[in-house]
Design a protein that fits this description.
By secondary structure, the chain is mainly alpha-helical. It contains 24 helices and 5 strands. It has 2 domains: 375 residues, no CATH class; 120 residues. It is globular, with a radius of gyration of 26 Å.
Length: 532
C-alpha cells in the first residue's frame, strides 16, 4: 500500500512539474527580441549570452572549436552552468532559421532548462527528503508551496545558475539522507554533488559545518569508529575536490586557473564592500525580517513554524530525522552567516536558505507524539494551503508584468521615441557611423550605421572625451543615484566615484558640456552633441 502511495505521489508531482514547466513558457519568451533587449531587463543575462553563443560557434579548426567550447571566458560562474546551457540549446543549431537571430527562442530554452527544470527537480527532492511521499496530500501541497513562492517564480523568469546550484545542494541533502549514517557510497555521492555546487557558484561551501556535524552524528551513533571517521572525512574531501575539477576542468590550466582565482578574489571583495557604492547590509534593521523576504518566500508565522519544526527535528527521537535536521541546521547557520555579512541582500541569494527551511514544514506532524499527528497533519494542510493562496495572490501580478514587460518598458519606449522622431541625426554625415553611448539598461539594438558603447564602470567625462558620442542615453535611476549628495564619500573607489558623480550631476541639471538635452521619459534622458 505504501509503495502504491509513493508511485501515485511521484506521478502527481511529475504532472505538477510538467504543468508548471509549460505554464512559464509564454513569460520566458518575452524580453528577448534582440540580444540588447536582454540588458534592459536582466543585465546578467546579457553578460552571459554572448559567451554561450560563442561556445557553440565553430572555429577554423577542430581545436579552435573545442577551445571555444571549453574556454568559456566568463568565469564569474563555473563551467557546469555554461556546459548545461550550451547543451540545452545545441539542438536548436539543427534548425538554422531558429538559431540565427532568434534570441527569443534561444533565451526561452535557456530559462526553461537551466532555471525552471532544475527548480522543479529541487522542489521534488526537498519534498521527498522530508515526507518520503508517505502522505500524498502533504507531499503535493509542500511541492506546490515551494514552486509557487514568488521568489521562486521570479528566479524562473531569468537564465542564471541559482536553480542549477540549488539542485546540486538538494542532491547533497538527498544523498546524505539516503546514506543513513553509514558513510557508504551515498556519502560520496553527496560529496560529488557538494563539489558540483562549489564548482557552479561556490554555494557548496555552505556545507562547511554540516558535513562535520553529519560525521559527528555517525560517531555518536557508533555507525563508524573514530578512525573510520577520519578516513571517510578525507575521502569526502578528495571526492569533493575531484568533483570541483570535473565540473571546472579549466582549473587544470595555469593561465585559466589564475584568472578564475582572480575573479573569485574580486567577487569576494565586492561581496564585502559593494560594487560602486559602499553598502551596509541592514537585513535585520529594527530587529525585523524585511518585507521583501516575507512577501516573496514565507510569511513570518510560517517562517517561525518552519524554524520551530527544524529545532524539533534536531531533538527528534527518530534518528534519521534528527540527523538530517542537525545537518540542515548547521547548513543554514553557515548560509545565513555568509549572507548577513555580505554587502547587500538580493532576493535570489536566499533561495538556498528559504527553500530547505520551508521544506521543514513537512516534518511538523512527525516531530509530535503519535496521538497528535493526525490533528497536526490536518492543521498542516490548512497552513500549507493558506500560504499557497498568499503565494498565488502575489504570483499573478508578477506573471502579468512578465508577459507585458516589453510594451510597458520605459527603456524600449525611449528608444522607440528616439527612432521615430530623431533618427537618423541630420548633422551626422551618411558616410560616418553615429556614435552612441548608453547606460546599461538603455535599449539601443545593434544596427547598421551606428556604433554603440556601454561601459560596466559607468559614464564619466574622461570616458566620453575619448569616445566623442553623438548621442548619450542615460538611465534616470543612475542619474539619481550618482548625483546624490555625499555619493563620492560612499564610493568604493572615491576617485572613480568623483568622476562618475561629476558627470551624472551635470546630467541631472541637463547641462552636460558640449551636449544639448534632446528628449526624456520616466525611464531616461537623451542628449545630443551640440553643433560646432
Amino acid at each position: 500500500m505504501e509503495i502504491s502511495k509513493r508511485k501515485t505521489t511521484v506521478w502527481l508531482l511529475i504532472l505538477i512539474g510538467l504543468t508548471y514547466f509549460c505554464s512559464l513558457i509564454p513569460a520566458n519568451l518575452t524580453g528577448a527580441e534582440t540580444p540588447e533587449m536582454l540588458e534592459v531587463f536582466e543585465v546578467d543575462e546579457y553578460a552571459q549570452y554572448g559567451h554561450v553563443i560563442r561556445m557553440l560557434t565553430p572555429g577554423d579548426s577542430l581545436y579552435q572549436t573545442l577551445r571555444s567550447f571549453f574556454i568559456y571566458l566568463h568565469y564569474f560562474y563555473g563551467f557546469p552552468f555554461y556546459f548545461w546551457s550550451a547543451l540545452s540549446i545545441l539542438p536548436l543549431k539543427l534548425f538554422p532559421s531558429v538559431w540565427q537571430g532568434n534570441t527569443r527562442v534561444i533565451m526561452c530554452v535557456l530559462r526553461q532548462m537551466i532555471s525552471v527544470l532544475p527548480m522543479i527537480l529541487s522542489a521534488g527532492l526537498l519534498t521527498w527528503i522530508v515526507t518520503k511521499f508517505k502522505n500524498i496530500l502533504t507531499a503535493v501541497l509542500l511541492d506546490v508551496l515551494l514552486l509557487t513562492m514568488p521568489a521562486v517564480l521570479q528566479n524562473d523568469f531569468w537564465w542564471h545558475p541559482d536553480s542549477l546550484t540549488l539542485l546540486f545542494l538538494s542532491l547533497t541533502f538527498f544523498f546524505l539522507d539516503r546514506d543513513e549514517m553509514r558513510c557508504g557510497r551515498n556519502f560520496f555521492f553527496a560529496a560529488f554533488a557538494c563539489g558540483a555546487a562549489i564548482g557552479t557558484k561556490y554555494l557548496g561551501l555552505y556545507f562547511a559545518l554540516a558535513i562535520p556535524a553529519y560525521l559527528l552524528c555517525c560517531l555518536i551513533a557508533e555507525t563508524v569508529s573514530f578512525r573510520q571517521l577520519i578516513v571517510k572525512a578525507g575521502l569526502f574531501l578528495l571526492v569533493m575536490a575531484a568533483a570541483i575539477l570535473f565540473s571546472d576542468p579549466l582549473l587544470l590550466l595555469p593561465q585559466e586557473r589564475a584568472e578564475i582565482f582572480g575573479i573569485m578574489k574580486q567577487q569576494t571583495e565586492l561581496s564585502g564592500s559593494g560594487i560602486f557604492l559602499q553598502y551596509q547590509n541592514v537585513f535585520l534593521e529594527d530587529g525585523h525580517l524585511p518585507d521583501w523576504l516575507t512577501e516573496n518566500y514565507l510569511r513570518l508565522p510560517w517562517i517561525a513554524l518552519a524554524f520551530v519544526t527544524l529545532i524539533g527535528a534536531v531533538v527528534s527521537r527518530k534518528r534519521n530525522i534528527r540527523t538530517l535536521g542537525t545537518v540542515l541546521l548547521c547548513y543554514l547557520v553557515t548560509a545565513c552567516t555568509v549572507n548577513l555579512n555580505a554587502a547587500a541582500s538580493r532576493l535570489h541569494y536566499f533561495l538556498p536558505i528559504m527553500l530547505p527551511l520551508a521544506a521543514c514544514l513537512g516534518w511538523f506532524p512527525e516531530i509530535l507524539p503519535a496521538r497528535y499527528r493526525s490533528s497536526a497533519r490536518n492543521a498542516l494542510y490548512v497552513l500549507l494551503g493558506l500560504q499557497m493562496i498568499l503565494n498565488v495572490h502575489t504570483d499573478i501580478p508578477l506573471m502579468k508584468i512578465q508577459l507585458h514587460r516589453e510594451e510597458n518598458s520605459g527603456s524600449i519606449a525611449l528608444y522607440n521615441t528616439l527612432q521615430a522622431d530623431y533618427l537618423p541625426l541630420p548633422e551626422v554625415p551618411p558616410e560616418r557611423m553615429t556614435r552612441v553611448y548608453r547606460d546599461w539598461k538603455v535599449y539601443f539594438p545593434e544596427q547598421e550605421g551606428y556604433a554603440v558603447l556601454t561601459d560596466w564602470n559607468l559614464a564619466s567625462f574622461p570616458l566620453l572625451s575619448e569616445w566623442h558620442p553623438d548621442l548619450i542615453l542615460l538611465e534616470n535611476e543612475n542619474i539619481r543615484a550618482y548625483s546624490a549628495e555625499g555619493v563620492t564619500e560612499r564610493g568604493v573607489n572615491s576617485d572613480k566615484m568623483a568622476l562618475t558623480a561629476a558627470f551624472y550631476s551635470a546630467a541631472a541639471e541637463k547641462a552636460i558640456p558640449g551636449y544639448e538635452f534632446l528628449t526624456e521619459n520616466n525611464f531616461g534622458m537623451v542628449f545630443k552633441k551640440e553643433l560646432p
